[in-house]
Design a protein that fits this description.
By secondary structure, this protein is of the alpha/beta class. It is built from 31 helices and 24 strands. Helices cover about 45% and strands about 15% of the residues. The strands form 6 sheets. Strands 10, 11, 12, 13, 14, 15 and 16 form a 7-stranded parallel beta sheet that branches. Strands 4-9-8-5-7-6 form a 6-stranded parallel beta sheet, with helices on both faces. A 4-stranded mixed beta sheet has the order 20-19-22-21. Helix 24 (about 610-625) crosses helix 25. The longest helix has 30 residues, at about 180-205.
Length: about 800
C-alpha cells in the first residue's frame, strides 16, 4: 500500500515495514503490522506439509513480529526511514517469545514453549539455545518480561493458547539414543524456523512490491495429476529402449521391480545393484509412482559431484523437458537478466519446482548451515522423495549427521529417502548413528533374478603378492604399454589418487607415442573444459579410435563412460568397484580387465589425504586376511566392517582438533556447555545451532584458493567485473565465472604468484578470488607451474 510520506511520519498506525517508492513522488510503500502477521501465519501454514504442525506454525507466524507493536520500534521505523536514527537496531523478536512463555506456562508444555520461543528469537538469524559459556537464551530473553516497555503488551489477552503438540509429535518417532532424540527436537526447531523464514521473506518481497502476488503465491498443485503426466512422459521415454542382450533384459527387470516397490509403506529405502544396472532411471521410476501414490510435493535427485548432476540433468530434460526440471548448483548461469532473476526465485525455496536436481553440498547446507538462506530451503524436504546417488561418497565425518537427518526426515516429515549405490556402506554397524530402517528396505532383492551372473570384467591385483608391491610411474607406464600390446585393448582408463601422479603418468605415457589419443582429467581443468572432454570421450568411445584417459577420482563414480580396460591406483574396495563400473559397462566385449597397482609413496604422495591413506591401510588388512580371488561382495563386506571400525570416531563429525566438541554433540546434548551452566533453571533445548552451523562445511576449503582461468570464454566476464561497482552485479558476474574457476592449494598458488601468473580479480576489494593468466594454463593439463620461469619479452 502507498501513502504520502508526511502521513506515514506523523500518523500513529502500526506498520511492519516501509520503503521509498522508486520514482520521485512523495510516497511510501507500507505494510500494516496486522496484515504482515496474518499473511505470514497463513503462508507458513500453507507451506507446511506436516498436518500435525500446521496449527503450531500458524501461531508462531501470528506472533513472530509482535515486538513491532511497541512505541520504541515504531519510532525506530520512522526515524530510520528519515535517516534520523543514530542508535542500534531495536529488538522486535523478544516480545513474541515472551507471549509464548506467558501462555505455555505449565511444565508439560516446556518443550513446545522452548521450541516456539527459539523459532521466533531466531527468525532474523540462527541462535544458540545455550552458549559455550553456559548462558541460556531463554534465561536472557525471558528476564525481559520485567522490562516496563513490554508490560502493557503482556497484559493483553490476545493470542491465548496452550500446547503440547510438539512434544506429542516428537514422541511418535522416539529413538533409544537420547542424543539422537535431542537432535530430533533441534531438527524440528529448524523445520519450523524454515517455514517462518520462508513465509516472512516471501511476504516482505510482495509488500515491498519487488515481487507480484503470482510470484510469491505458494502454488497448490494437483499432485496426482502432475505426477501422472510425468509418469506418462517417463514410460514413453523408456518404451523406446531396445533389449539387445541379457544385460538389457536385467536392467528392464530391475526397473519394473522398482516401479512395483512404490507400493511399500517404507520411507527409508535402499537401492543396491551392480554398476551399470540402470539405477538412475530405476530410482526415478520408483519416485514418480511413489510421488503420485502419496501426493508428494517434490522429487529431489542429490548427487555428490556436479559432473554426475549435469549428466543426470540432461537425461531428466530429455524425459520431461527443461521447464519441468530445476538444476541447482553453484555453476548454473544464464545469459539474460530475466532468466537469472527467475532462477533466483526458483532456488530460494524450490516452491514451484516439483523436480529438483542438486548437489550433496547444497542439500546438507540446507539441513545444517546457519545461514537463513540455507535454512529457508529445509522445509521443502517434507513430503518429498529424496534420491541420493552414489551415497557411498559421503565422507565418514558427515555420515553420522547424515544418518540422524535422514532418520528425522523419514520419521517426522513424511520424506521418502532412496539410497542408491553399487557399494553401500554398512549403515547397520555405525554405533550411535544407525540408519533407522526395517527389514524390507531393499528395493531390489539380492537374489538370482536381479543378479548379473556373467563376468563383465576380472580384477588383477598387480599390487599384491602376499604383500603390497609399489610401482614407480615409469614402471606403471611400462606395464600399461605391455598390457595394451598383449591384449590389443582399443582403450584404457587409468585413475590415480593425486593430480601430480596422474599428470606425471599422463606425460610419461604420452612420451611413448603408443598411437593412442591421450586425455587427462582432473580438477586442474576448469569445469566447462572438463565437461567438453567428457562429452568428447563419450562420443569417441563409440568409435574404433584408440584412446587412453588418465584421470583423478572425479571420473570413477556415476559418469556414464565405458572402457574395455581400467587401471586403478590402490585405494578402498568401494573406489575399486566404482571404477570397475567404467569397465565393459555395456557388455561391449566378452570380459574386460581391471588392474590394481600401487604407485610408490614418493611419486603418489597421499600423506595429506587422510581418508585415502586410511582406506589403503584397511585394504592391506583385508587382502592379508582374505584371498584376493574372493568374490567382490565378500571383499567389500570385509572392507566395510573394518572401515566402520577405523572411522567410528569420525562419525560424530569432529570439530577440527577439538576432540571433545563434535557437531553431533553441539546439535544434540551439548554436554560441555551444559556443564558450564550457572543458573539453577534447567532447559530442554541446549543445542548450539549457530555455532554448529557456522562450523559445518561439506568441503574443507580453508587451504585452497579459487582462480578464474583466463580463456576466450572468461575474458569478457573478467572485463565486465573490472567495470562494475555494485556489489549485487559483481556477485552475479562471479556466479557466471564458476564454470571457469579452479581451486589450487596455497603451495601451488605461491608458486604461480612467484612466476607472475596470477593477479587479484578485484584490485580494490580483496574478495579472495584471483585470475590465472592464460600462460599458466595448458589445454591438455590445465593449471601449469613452470619448473623454470618462462622467457617473456617485455
Amino acid at each position: 500500500m502507498k501513502i504520502a510520506e508526511d502521513d506515514f511520519l506523523t500518523n500513529s498506525n502500526l506498520y511492519a515495514r516501509a520503503s521509498k517508492v522508486n520514482d520521485d513522488s512523495n510516497q511510501v510503500i507500507v505494510q500494516s503490522l496486522e496484515d504482515h502477521l496474518q499473511n505470514v501465519a497463513k503462508l507458513a501454514q500453507n507451506m507446511c506439509d506436516v498436518p500435525e504442525l500446521r496449527e503450531t506454525i500458524y501461531q508462531i507466524g501470528s506472533m513472530h513480529d509482535l515486538g513491532k507493536e511497541t512505541k520504541e520500534w515504531q519510532k525506530y521505523l520512522r526515524s530510520s526511514f528519515s535517516n534520523d536514527w543514530h542508535g542500534t537496531k531495536v529488538d522486535h523478536s523478544t516480545l513474541g517469545g515472551l507471549k509464548i512463555n506467558q501462555n505455555l506456562s505449565e511444565y508439560k508444555e516446556s518443550l513446545d514453549r522452548e521450541i516456539m520461543e527459539l523459532v521466533i528469537f531466531s527468525h532474523h538469524g540462527m541462535k544458540d539455545a545455550l552458549s559455550e559459556m553456559g548462558e541460556s537464551i531463554f534465561e536472557k530473553r525471558i528476564n525481559e518480561k520485567n522490562n516496563k516497555k513490554y508490560a502493557d503488551y503482556l497484559i493483553d489477552d490476545k493470542n491465548k493458547f496452550h500446547s503440547t503438540k510438539l512434544y506429542d509429535y516428537l514422541c511418535k518417532g522416539v529413538s533409544k539414543n537420547n542424543r539422537e532424540n535431542a537432535y530430533y527436537s533441534g531438527a524440528l526447531y529448524r523445520y519450523l524456523l524454515s517455514l517462518l523464514v520462508d513465509a516472512d521473506w516471501t511476504d516482505a518481497s510482495y509488500a515491498s512490491e519487488s515481487r507480484t502476488q503470482e510470484e510469491v503465491d505458494y502454488k497448490s498443485f494437483d499432485f496426482q495429476s502432475y505426477w501422472s503426466d510425468r509418469i506418462e512422459q517417463f514410460e514413453q521415454y523408456i518404451s523406446l529402449f531396445e533389449s539387445r542382450n541379457e544385460l538389457d533384459e536385467l536392467r528392464s527387470r530391475i526397473s519394473l521391480q522398482c516401479k512395483e516397490f512404490s507400493n511399500t509403506s517404507n520411507n527409508m529405502i535402499r537401492l543396491q545393484s551392480f554398476t551399470g544396472s540402470g539405477k538412475t532411471l530405476s530410482a526415478l521410476r520408483f519416485a514418480l509412482y511413489k510421488a503420485r501414490k502419496e501426493k508428494k510435493r517434490h522429487i529431489f535427485l542429490i548427487a555428490p559431484y556436479q559432473s554426475i548432476l549435469d549428466q543426470t540433468y540432461k537425461i531428466y530434460c530429455d524425459i520431461f523437458g527443461e521447464d519441468e526440471v530445476l538444476l541447482h548448483h553453484s555453476r548454473v548461469t544464464f545469459e539474460s537478466e530475466e532468466l537469472d532473476k527467475k532462477y533466483e526465485y526458483l532456488i530460494e525455496n524450490y516452491q514451484n519446482s516439483p523436480i529438483v536436481l542438486t548437489t550433496m553440498v547444497q542439500l546438507l547446507n540446507s539441513i545444517f548451515r546457519s545461514s537463513l538462506s540455507d535454512v529457508r530451503r529445509f522445509h521443502a524436504l517434507a513430503n518429498s522423495v529424496l534420491i541420493f546417488d552414489e551415497v557411498q561418497s559421503i565422507p565418514p565425518n558427515l555420515m553420522g549427521l547424515f544418518n540422524w537427518a535422514m532418520n528425522f526426515c523419514t520419521k517426522y516429515l513424511n520424506t521418502t529417502v532412496v539410497l542408491c549405490s553399487a557399494t553401500h556402506p554398512k549403515f547397520d554397524e555405525m554405533d550411535d548413528y544407525l540408519l533407522d530402517h526395517n527389514a524390507g528396505w531393499d528395493m531390489v532383492p539380492q537374489t538370482d533374478p536381479f543378479i548379473y551372473k556373467k563376468q563383465r570384467y576380472r580384477i588383477v591385483w598387480d599390487c599384491w603378492n602376499q604383500r603390497l608391491i609399489p610401482f614407480s610411474i615409469k614402471e606403471t607406464a611400462n606395464l600399461i604399454e605391455k598390457r595394451l600390446k598383449a591384449y590389443d585393448f582399443k582403450n584404457m582408463l587409468i585413475v590415480l589418487n593425486t593430480k601430480k601422479a596422474a599428470r606425471d603418468l599422463f606425460e610419461t605415457i604420452k612420451a611413448k607415442n603408443l598411437g593412442y589419443s591421450m586425455y587427462y582429467l582432473s580438477t586442474d581443468l576448469y569445469p566447462s573444459h572438463r565437461g567438453r572432454i567428457i562429452q568428447e570421450l563419450k562420443e569417441k568411445l563409440q568409435t574404433d579410435e584408440r584412446i587412453i584417459c588418465v584421470s583423478t577420482q572425479l571420473i570413477e563414480a556415476g559418469v556414464d563412460l565405458s572402457f574395455v580396460s581400467v587401471m586403478r591406483s590402490f585405494a578402498g574396495m568401494d573406489n575399486i568397484l566404482q571404477v570397475a563400473g567404467r569397465c565393459n559397462r555395456n557388455d561391449e566385449i566378452d570380459c574386460g580387465l581391471v588392474q590394481i597397482v600401487k604407485i610408490s609413496d614418493k611419486e603418489e604422495n597421499i600423506s595429506n589425504l587422510k581418508y585415502i591413506k586410511d582406506q589403503q591401510d584397511i585394504m592391506i588388512s583385508v587382502l592379508s586376511e582374505c584371498d584376493d580371488q574372493k568374490n567382490q561382495t565378500e571383499l567389500l563386506d570385509h572392507y566395510y566392517k573394518q572401515y566402520n571400525w577405523k572411522f567410528k570416531d569420525d562419525l560424530k563429525c569432529p570439530n577440527g582438533d577439538d576432540s571433545y566438541q563434535s557437531l553431533t554433540e553441539l546439535l544434540s546434548t551439548n554436554c560441555r556447555a551444559v556443564s558450564n551452566i550457572k543458573s539453577k533453571n534447567m532447559h530442554i533445548m541446549n543445542q548450539a545451532f549457530k555455532q554448529a552451523g557456522n562450523i559445518f562445511q561439506v568441503i574443507d576449503d580453508k587451504n585452497t584458493i579459487p582462480l578464474v582461468v583466463e580463456c576466450e570464454s572468461s575474458e569478457d566476464l573478467i572485463n565486465q567485473y573490472s567495470k562494475t561497482y555494485l556489489y549485487r552485479d559483481k556477485k552475479k558476474i562471479i556466479r557466471r565465472m564458476q564454470n571457469f574457476i579452479v581451486t589450487v592449494s596455497k603451495y601451488t598458488f605461491k608458486k604461480l604468484d612467484e612466476q607472475g601468473l596470477v593477479y587479484p580479480l578485484d584490485r580494490e576489494n580483496d574478495n579472495g578470488i584471483w585470475v590465472l593468466n592464460k600462460n599458466g594454463y595448458d589445454e591438455s593439463l590445465g593449471v601449469r607451474i613452470f619448473n623454470e620461469l618462462p622467457f617473456i619479452c617485455i
